[in-house]
Design goal:
about 200 residues, alpha+beta, five-stranded mixed β-sheet, four-stranded mixed β-sheet
């Protein structure tokens, strides 16, 4: 089975059960595997990344939960009354981030479906022709106390691991990101707007 998969350019099910969800072919999966390995290696040998690549984690939800718990412990906030808030930055290059956020982290490698991100307007905009999926700039994920967060002009955008979105068992959703919009929320819901960590 393994040799047939390699010959045909598919990822073996034996490997898929031991790795994060993916729809990639064998070549892209191997590149993804190497990048995952390098992120873990740098994390162990140097420091926690200033810009985390969520797609390279086996269970990205656990990292976000730990991020929230660590901040709540440090600032003595009640965990059940705190949540994660997101802001899209103007920066696209992770190498330009030289300082860690005081609370929260930067996330790279998120892709937008059903819309595009306008750097000029700082919000969602219509897709360009023949661009079905676009990479987002770096996104800040910031823990906040729920009673201090006042959101206006944003849409709760689901973040999925792959373009399959949720499977039949309800698995696949990581969290919901707050994305700015100058249009009514229903417009983007009808467009099927979502963020994904992995493209095909």
């Amino acid at each position: 089975e393994l040799s047939n998969c390699i010959f045909n350019g598919f990822v073996s099910p034996l490997w898929l059960v031991r790795a994060p969800q993916s729809l990639k072919n064998l070549v892209n999966w191997i590149e993804h595997f190497e990048r995952r390995y390098n992120q873990y290696k740098d994390w162990i040998e140097i420091e926690e990344p200033k810009v985390i690549w969520l797609s390279g984690l086996h269970i990205p939800q656990s990292y976000l939960t730990a991020l929230l718990q660590t901040t709540c412990r440090a600032r003595q906030w009640p965990l059940d009354k705190s949540l994660l808030y997101t802001e899209v930055s103007k920066e696209r290059n992770p190498a330009k981030i030289t300082k860690r956020l005081d609370a929260g982290t930067y996330i790279q490698g998120m892709f937008l479906e059903g819309a595009r991100w306008s750097i000029e307007k700082g919000c969602l905009d219509y897709q360009n022709p023949k661009e079905l999926v676009v990479e987002m700039p770096l996104v800040r994920v910031i823990p906040v106390e729920a009673n201090k967060l006042k959101l206006r002009g944003t849409i709760k955008t689901p973040v999925y691991v792959t373009q399959d979105r949720k499977n039949a068992m309800g698995k696949g959703e990581v969290f919901a990101a707050d994305i700015k919009t100058d249009k009514h929320v229903s417009h983007w819901i009808l467009q099927g707007v979502a963020l994904v960590l992995n493209t095909d």
